[in-house]
Design a protein that fits this description.
alpha/beta; Rossmann fold; six-stranded mixed beta sheet
C-alpha cells in the first residue's frame, strides 16, 4: 500500500532510544533489555515476534506511557525532559489493540481529546472527522452511531480517527488490527496510509503485527522482538 520513498537518514531521527530499559515493578525482572533504536522521518518500521516478547513494552516505553528504568529518549535530537512530556505525547501517539471508548456517540469520542488540557489550544473539526470516516469506508451517519453499538472493527476505526485528527508526527501501532475482519483491517491500513501520505516527509510509524502479509504491506524495515530484545532486522522491498 505504501509508496517506495526512502527515509532521509541525514536528518536527525524523529525518535531515538539510547539504551532504554524496563523492569517489572514487582519482581524486578527485565522486560526490555537495554535497547538502542532510531526512527527516521518518512520511515515505516514493523515489529514482529511471539506474544510476551516485549513488543508492547517497547512501544509503551517509546510513548513514555511507562517510565523507563534506564537510558534516555530523544525527540528530534533533544532529550525528552519531564516538563516536555505532554508536548512529546502530542507528537508521538500510541494506539493499542483494544480501544477504550467513552459512553456516547462516535462523535462524542472524537470530541473527547479536546476537553483535555493538552489540547485546549485546538478545536474539533467535524468536517475533518467525517473525511477520515469516509477514508475508512464509513458512510453518512457513522459519527452519530452509539459507541456501545460498534463492532470491534468500528471501535478500532473510531479510536484511530480520534488519534489521527490530532495530527501526530509518529504513530505507535500496537497490533491495531488483531482479531478484526478483513474489511476492518483494510480500513485501518487505509487510514494510516492516508495519514502518512499527507506529509510523509515529517512523519513515521512503528507497527506491531503478527501477520506476515501485513508486515510486508505496511513496513519498509522489519525488526523482530525476542525475550525483551530487538533482534533480527529484515529489509523489505517497498
Amino acid at each position: 500500500m505504501h509508496s517506495s520513498t526512502t527515509p532521509d537518514m541525514t536528518a536527525p531521527p524523529l525518535l531515538e532510544a539510547r539504551g532504554i530499559v524496563r523492569r517489572d515493578v514487582r519482581t524486578g525482572a527485565t522486560l526490555l533489555a537495554a535497547t538502542d533504536f532510531s526512527l527516521a522521518q518518512d520511515e515505516r518500521v514493523v515489529i514482529t515476534g511471539p506474544s510476551g516478547s516485549g513488543k508492547s513494552v517497547l512501544l509503551r516505553s517509546l510513548a513514555l506511557l511507562d517510565a523507563v528504568d534506564g537510558g534516555q529518549l530523544l525527540w528530534r535530537g533533544e532529550r525528552v525532559e519531564r516538563r516536555a512530556i505532554p508536548h512529546y505525547r502530542r507528537n508521538v501517539a500510541y494506539v493499542r489493540q483494544r480501544p477504550a471508548l467513552v459512553d456516547g456517540t462516535v462523535e462524542d469520542n472524537l470530541r473527547y481529546p479536546y476537553s483535555l488540557q493538552a489540547y485546549r489550544d485546538v478545536s474539533f473539526d467535524r468536517q475533518r472527522a467525517a473525511q477520515l470516516a469516509r477514508t475508512a469506508g464509513r458512510g453518512e451517519g457513522f459519527l452519530e452511531k452509539r459507541a456501545s453499538e460498534l463492532s470491534g472493527g468500528e471501535a478500532q476505526v473510531t479510536a484511530l480517527i480520534r488519534v489521527l485528527q490530532l495530527e501526530p508526527e509518529v504513530l505507535l501501532l500496537d497490533e491495531p488490527t488483531a482479531s478484526l475482519d478483513p474489511d476492518a483491517v483494510r480500513a485501518i491500513e487505509t487510514l494510516v496510509d492516508d495519514w502518512f501520505g499527507i506529509d510523509h516527509a515529517t512523519r513515521a510509524c512503528i507497527w506491531v503485527t503478527h501477520d506476515p502479509g501485513q508486515a510486508v504491506r505496511v513496513g519498509q524495515r522489519q525488526l523482530t522482538m525476542r525475550s525483551g530484545r530487538l533482534a533480527t532486522r529484515e529489509e523489505h522491498a517497498a
